[in-house]
Amino acid sequence: MKVNIVDWHGVATWHWKLASNDGKAGYVDELCGICRVPFDGTCPNCKFPGDDCPLVLGRGCIHNFHVHCILKWLEQEASKGLCPMCRQVFVHDPEDNPHSEEFEYLQQLEDGHRLLREKGETTYEE
Amino acid sequence: MLKIRQLQKKKLEEAAASAAATADITGNSSTISSNNKITPAQLRLQKDITELDIPKSIKLTFPNSSDLFNFNLSITPQQGYYKLGTFQFTVEINGNFPMDPPRIKCSNKIYHPNIDLSGNVCLNILREDWSPVLNLNSVLIGLNFLFLEPNPNDPLNKDAANVLVKNKTLFAKNVRDSMRGGYVDQEYYDRIV
User: Fold this and answer.
1) Nearest-10 crossing angle of helices A101-119, B3-28
2) What CATH number corresponds to the domain at position B110?
3) Would you tell me the crossing angle of helices A101-119 and A67-75 to the nearest 10 degrees?
4) Average pLDDT of the residues in B151-165
5) Measured between alpha carbons, how far is residue B89 from residues A41, B56, B104, B180 in Å?
């Protein structure tokens, strides 16, 4: 038998590599804790999943979030710069993440909260 | 001024500018209705409401079924000091949810260490310990817990807290008297049984 391939379609699937996939955490959390949308979906402000709506992983804690979601949280003074899940100081690993506007902004917010912390607790009480 | 404040301010200005721009667009061409767009807060709130898993003692009522952001809540504790009273609350959720916590106020005037006479509730997760990973369920469970275990260590009604610490029997009596609608220490409380 001879088969002539006339046409073919390649299909690929993708999946974010999550912290919990490394086996560091005992459970797999598939939803962003802040917006409750799966990581492979987008944050509520985006249309297309993937590189346009990246994830971030805390360094020190092992919690993933949509970058856009954690940015919104860290913009709040009430967040005190803490991870919403474990309340440790939220820092991300710049090495691990692409250079983009979002991550620069994230870095700025993290630095801002660090300065506030260094100035003392009183800064938070207005 | 601190950098983070500047960032926030910048962000706000941008938001205001884009809001003004969309207002312009909708003003010019009335076919575009930006009001129908589902906001992130609405999305998240809908999920929270469908996933609610609360004890029978808590009931939610929506006075305006198209408005999920404002609703009423009644709690009827099945045990503890406040057993069988029915306490009404209003819940107000703003457009910045889940970054901002829900605002919960008690509509009755009640005798409780953690609720003041104007109905403000002192619950850590509604204030300083709020986090966007908490949901409506955790808040309602927290509120319910205040009636099972009033906490005298972080009081809004200091007199009630002092009585709870010093004399539990008197506290129980005061709660009973207040729930029936009556005076405790020259203060009148609403009847809620």
Assistant:
1) 140
2) 3.10.110.10
3) 30
4) 92
5) 35, 16, 7, 18
Q: Please write the tens of the pLDDT for every residue from B67-87.
A: 999 999 999 999 999 998 999
Token pair for residue B16?
Answer: 């205001």
Q: Give chain B's domain count.
A: 1
CB–CB of A60/A89 below 8 Å?
yes
Q: Facing residues of A89 across strands? A: A82
Instruction: List domains and CATH numbers for chain A.
Output: 27-118 (3.30.40.10)
User: Is residue B3 domain-resident?
Assistant: no
Cβ-proximal residues to B156 (8 Å cutoff; 6+ apart), any chain? B113, B114, B115, B116, B120, B121, B122
The CA distance from B79 to the nearest CA of chain A, in Å, is 32
Q: Is A68 on the interface with B (CB under 8 A)?
A: no
Provide the residue range defining the domain that includes B139: 36-188
Whether residue B182 is contained in a domain is answered as: yes
Model confidence pLDDT, tens digit, residues A32-78 = 999 999 999 999 989 888 888 898 888 888 888 999 999 999 999 88
pLDDT of res. B34: 47
Q: Which of B39, B133, B135 sits opposite A85 (nearest CB)?
A: B133
Q: Which two tokens stand for residue B36?
A: 């129908």
The closest CB to that of B8, out of A33, A45, A75, belongs to A75
Let me know if B128 is exposed, middle or buried by CB neighbors in 10 A (0-12, 13-18, 19+). exposed
Contact criterion met (CB below 8 Å) for A18 and A24: no
Q: What are phi and psi of B23, to 5 degrees?
A: -60, -40
- Of the candidates B183, B178, B184, the one whose C-alpha atom is nearest the C-alpha of residue B192 is B178
Secondary structure, 3-state, A55-110: EEEECCCCCEEEHHHHHHHHHCHHHCCECCCCCCECCECHHHCCCCHHHHHHHHHH
Does the distance separating the beta carbons of A108 and B2 come in below 8 Å? Answer: no
